[in-house]
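Translate sequence into structure tokens.
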Amino acid sequence: MSSIKPLSWSQPKFKKTVGNVTQDQAQTLALDELINEKLQLAIINRAGVVPNDEVINQQLLQIAQSQGVNSLSEFQSRLDAERAGSYAALRANLIQDAAIQALWQNQIQSRVRITDDQIDAFLNSPESARLNQVQYRLLHIRVPYLDNTASEQNRQQAALVAERVKSSLDAGMNLDQAMQNARGDYTPDLQGADTGLINAAALPPAIAAKVDKLTIGQTSTPIVTANGIDIVKVVNKQQQNQVIVPKWQTSHILARIDSNQSSDIAEQKINAIYQQLQQGADFGTLAATYSDDTGSASQHGSLGWVNEGDMVPEFETMMKHTAKGDFSTPFRSQFGWHILKVNDVRQHDITEQYRRNAAHEYLFLRSAPQAQEDWLQELRSSAYIKIYE
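Result follows.
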């Protein structure tokens, strides 16, 4: 069975894509992309960018879990059993992508300024209809090249496999079936993902442009990039004009872990407080008396109204699983041991905020390709580039 590698769309790479191109055009496009990539990596190497191992490991674990593997050691063994060095190559690719994304954010975002007046003008224009919240579920398959310096023969082989992928998806095959049916004797493993429902704004512009023209059940024409050829099929499409999110009115008691209080002592303290709560003690009184979070303790533990994403993951998870009017069991975060209470829950309409944020993102993405092109032209004009035939 072909290995399935989920394809990340978090990095906004504005790569030129074409539908029907000649072999010479495809080769020129790939060469341009390779030169641009090398120039960016040279800047990264000079800057001494060090990847965040925790982030890279989390990405690797997500890929592993998508393939039914729950540990990185098992995932490494499986990949290397299929092809020696595959795990290290995948990790290196994720590190490179993360570094280029950081460079992109630093260089391009500083060149594109979107003002409130521009956002207001856009929201008052007919074009703002594009911001209606659209979500797609896609089957996304990539036919990768052997490497970034793939030969013309390899590119022709990839193009043939991509056409077979499209035919297989058009015939109604699922992700695994389409990949197995299309691969044949093609050496590189095909990469694929069932995205689940994903916001249109999260798609790269090249993919979004293709998907926007497709109806449910349709498959795109092959999309040629420097790294391979992509094909996407629209499985589902949903659209909402209103964005409603929950908010929690929350209080907590903290037993802090620091140089003055070890984890064991903090745990003993929070467990003693929990016993008092179980016996009917007042949460606010205990918070005011014993909580190590002095700011909230002065408010009887109150944190006010909390939005999704405001708190650390451990706190948010427990908050979402605690019923209104109830308190949680003790749990630990990076700050120490907590008990929280959910005083109230309400639904909050953030449609206007969402539309303004989406408008900013849309205007930014519309301007960013030219900003990136200008930046890359500056890089190329100041670099010495020699192409060996």
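Note: The beta strands are 133-144, 191-199, 223-224, 228-240, 244-256, 302-307, 331-332, 336-349.
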